[in-house]
């Protein structure tokens, strides 16, 4: 089945929560793209006014401006709402994110948002974190081979993200190591261990951050809340 209409439906449900005057975190990825386009449509039609967007990637910044949104850099002021996709959604709304490579700016932005709304198709639903997706970990470029060796001691079986001849480089000039998580286990403890590992910049574990998720499947859009 074509998931794109389902992803768009989920995005429309999330965008319906935005009110005029809000500061909005703009997510990254193919589902967040529908949300950014819809916000742009509502601003152009006058349904929404006074919206300021904060983008979680260069790609989302470019798209937001292209649809006529005002985009500002992240500053310490809180955001009213952020809308973003995910790679895995657990029953308690713990997430894996980062397959689009934007996890650092996403987490930096979304921790400042009063509400984090996740939008996805049903393929992202898991019973436990680690079931379907790798865990993206952003690592410093300098000494990355040493950092990867440190990570292999914690989460063996991962690899540097390298789609072509060169490693993938994030908007922040870092590399990504895609780790394979053991399913189950204490992921909060794992997050602490990973964050305490020299050379690790950020992980794609978004634990206890999302307020709700709109998940689209062929029989409709489910609204999950924590
Ligand atoms: O990289 C990211 O964090 C994206 O939000 C990703 O998790 C979801 O991307 P998708 O909507 O294209 O599947």
TrEMBL record:
EC number of the protein: 5.3.1.6
Residues involved in substrate binding: 28-31, 84-87, 97-100, 124
The entry's keywords: Isomerase
Pfam families documented for this protein: Rib_5-P_isom_A (PF06026)
Gene3D superfamilies from the UniProt entry: 3.30.70.260, 3.40.50.1360
Catalyzed reactions per annotation: aldehydo-D-ribose 5-phosphate = D-ribulose 5-phosphate
Protein family membership: Belongs to the ribose 5-phosphate isomerase family.
Function: Catalyzes the reversible conversion of ribose-5-phosphate to ribulose 5-phosphate.
Subunit structure: Homodimer.
NCBIfam families found in the cross-reference section: PRK00702.1 (NF001924), rpiA (TIGR00021)
Protein name (database record): Ribose-5-phosphate isomerase A
């Amino acid at each position: 089945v074509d998931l794109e209409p389902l992803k768009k439906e989920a995005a429309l449900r999330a965008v319906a929560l935005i009110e005029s005057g809000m500061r909005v975190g703009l997510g990254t990825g193919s589902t967040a793209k529908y949300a950014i386009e819809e916000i742009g449509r509502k601003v152009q039609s006058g349904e929404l006014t006074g919206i300021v967007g904060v983008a979680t990637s260069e790609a989302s910044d470019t798209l937001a401006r292209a649809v006529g949104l005002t985009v500002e850099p992240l500053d310490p002021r809180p955001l009213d709402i952020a809308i973003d996709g995910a790679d895995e959604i657990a029953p308690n709304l713990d997430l894996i994110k980062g397959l689009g490579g934007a996890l650092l700016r996403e987490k930096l932005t979304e921790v400042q948002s009063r509400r984090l709304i996740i939008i996805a198709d049903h393929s992202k639903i898991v019973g436990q974190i680690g079931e379907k997706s790798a865990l993206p970990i952003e690592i410093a470029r300098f000494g990355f081979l040493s950092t990867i060796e440190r990570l292999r001691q914690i989460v063996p079986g991962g690899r540097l993200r390298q789609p072509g001849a060169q490693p993938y480089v994030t908007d922040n000039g870092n590399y990504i190591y895609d780790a394979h998580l053991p399913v189950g286990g204490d992921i909060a403890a794992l997050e602490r261990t990973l964050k305490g590992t020299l050379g690790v910049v950020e992980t794609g574990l978004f634990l206890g951050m999302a307020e709700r998720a709109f998940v689209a499947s062929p029989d409709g859009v489910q609204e999950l809340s924590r």
